[in-house]
């Protein structure tokens, strides 16, 4: 689909910056923009068995903690940061597509999200995934997804396997409880999710800047 010359292709961030969706740069958003965007972008199409839906920000922290817990040795801060930011483009778009509609979004949307992912990797100086690292990431991501499906979205464990086709086990314990002393599996309010995400993001960046290798 051709883009008309005068078509607006940018969105305004809360900071006042402009994110050019067709040609994004690493300077088009602030960390607080990303945190808020992820806190206001919801998984599972916004559907939830709780009063609030589950944000991508909360999911991202959970995936990072699961990846950390499964690692045989302490992860480098940049590896944890890459886990935290694995869905960052969704916060910049304000959209997390549910699986059934992804095949219908087309090549244009896939190219747009790839460009955003590349801008995120450049901004935060993230190394490219190796096959082994990406496989470890996907295990943590699927474990989080299976557990969210049951404890947050209300699917049964059998439906997770047969309908959602997620083969990961379902956790009984919420990995976020040990860190935040929160109610197990309860989605956080957007302001809480944004604050916690930004805190983790800034903490990891400080460790990287200080040369912390693990």
Question: Topology as H/E string?
Answer: EEHHHHHHHHH
Report the end-to-end length measured between terminal Cα atoms. 46 Å
Strand order of the largest sheet: 1-2
Percent helix, as a range, is 40-55%
Approximate strand percentage: under 5%
Helix segment count?
Answer: 9
Biggest sheet descriptor:
2 strands, antiparallel
Cα-atom radius of gyration: 17 Å
Number of extended strands: 2
Tell me, rounded to a whole number, the average pLDDT.
Answer: 95
Characterize the structure shown:
By secondary structure, this protein is an all-alpha fold. Helices cover 50% and strands 3% of the residues. A two-stranded antiparallel sheet has the order 1-2. The radius of gyration is 17 Å and the shape is globular. The protein starts with 9 loop residues before the first strand and ends in a 5-residue tail after the last helix.
